Amino acid sequence: MLGVTRSDCAARDAADPLGHLRDQFHLPPGVIYLDGNSLGPLPRRAAARVRDALQLEWGDGLIRGWVEANWWDKPVTLGARLAPLIGAGPGEVLVADSTSINTFKVAVAALRLRPDRRAIVTDRNNFPTDLYMIGSAAELCGQLEVRVVDGPEGVVGALDGSVAFTELTHVDYRTARLYPMAEVTQATHEVGALAIWDLAHSVGAVPLALDACDVDFAVGCTYKYLNGGPGAPAFLFAASRLHDALRQPLVGWHGHARPFGFEPAYEAAAGMRQFACGSPPIVSFAALEGSLEVWEHVDLDALFAKGRALSELLIECVEPSFVPGEFELASPRDPLQRGSHVALRHRAARSLVVALEERGVLGDFREPDIVRLGIAPLYLRFVDIWDAADALRSLLATGVVDSPA
Ligand SMILES: *Cc1c(COP(=O)(O)O)cnc(C)c1O
């Protein structure tokens, strides 16, 4: 396969200072896992933390867990642990609910900060749940106009003084295109609007600097590159400069200033706590806590550089098989404009993904014609990428995937 040999890759793995991190994960034998951008694998610490949460905290502690095991504080303490991964201050992140629900909360909070503005701008390439949630927020807040435009260029072009907020997904879930966060946020602010970013495919995948980019709100998943487990609670970010004026719509007792006052009238807690709603999934928090411990001692710059090197290797290995119009790179070729997955376009993408899985390579299919291969440098090796590319190349060469599924 071109110039790179499997033994070149093995040598790179042997010299990789991050190579030991792979041992932190349970990875089933015989599988090359290129779908960690959909559901990260199980970190051993997460399994241990869940066992403790069940046996010790719940089993032995019973109701005392809320205080003695700090269950009550987890949304805030886990948020503080996550903050360095997104370039936020420790008091700017809360772990709660799902990305979908958090999108709704920040959308309405943003609209309430701009009550005189009648429009929202978002991207048609956005993950659908974002569009649904924004549409519903717009309807509830008085039939606002939702401008659904194409990409960051479209968003910037649709800005004017009537816009309350922009909402974009930072790394396109299909193509991995990385949007220019600083530029779009700045353009949004120039018309007096607020910027919301969805970081589902960014956190744990690419460098993030929310405070440096002056972002207003962000949301994201913890079950993708962060490996928090299926359905793991999501996070949300609000810049601290906004906290005092915020009013989010889902006002449950966990976000009350005095939840155990059991008062009939709502009064929001200070800071990010006000974004909490009802009782959270404590066992899932335990898994997330274990998974975040893995991140704590990782040199992020080195990790993201390794991720780019793995993606580049994958592209270099499959590039010779590209046929214009038949099999192509759907991701940007420039690694600085790409997130951490590689999207390949093939008319038989669906059957290609199935055939790869039969050879132990797990990726995924996205409508209509995308093979998505997630590159997670915490646990993937250069040889894994080489083997996956080899499987893909031999499938293409033998015509296994000639007909669309
Ligand atoms: C995965 C993903 C979500 C998922 O939202 P959930 O509420 O966790 O199901 C949201 N937005 C984007 C961009 C995603 O990629």
Lay out the secondary structure.
Blueprint: H1 6-14, E1 25-26, E2 32-33, E3 42-43, H2 44-60, H3 65-68, H4 74-86, E4 93-95, H5 99-113, E5 119-123, H6 128-140, E6 145-149, H7 151-157, E7 163-169, H8 181-190, E8 194-198, E9 217-220, E10 235-238, H9 282-296, H10 300-318, E11 327-329, E12 341-346, H11 349-358, E13 361-362, E14 364-366, E15 370-374, H12 382-398
Parallel strand pairs: 2-13, 5-6, 5-7, 7-8, 8-9
Antiparallel strand pairs: 1-3, 4-10, 9-10, 11-12, 12-15, 14-15
The structure holds pyridoxal-5'-phosphate.
How many distinct folded domains?
Answer: 2
Morphology call? globular
Low-confidence stretches: none
The biggest beta sheet reads:
7 strands, mixed
User: Overall pLDDT, averaged?
Assistant: 96
Instruction: Walk across the major sheet and give the strand order.
Output: 4-10-9-8-7-5-6
What is the radius of gyration computed over CA atoms, rounded to a whole number of angstroms? Answer: 22 Å
CATH class of the largest domain: Alpha Beta
Question: What percentage of residues falls in helices of 4 or more residues?
Answer: 25-40%
**Hetero ligands:** pyridoxal-5'-phosphate
Number of helices: 12
CATH fold group of the largest domain:
Aspartate Aminotransferase, domain 2
Task: Report the order of strands and helices.
Answer: HEEEHHHEHEHEHEHEEEHHEEHEEEH
CATH architecture of the largest domain: 3-Layer(aba) Sandwich
How much strand content do the residues show?
A: 5-15%
Q: Report the strand count.
A: 15
Kindly name the structural category.
alpha/beta
CATH superfamily of the largest domain: Type I PLP-dependent aspartate aminotransferase-like (Major domain)
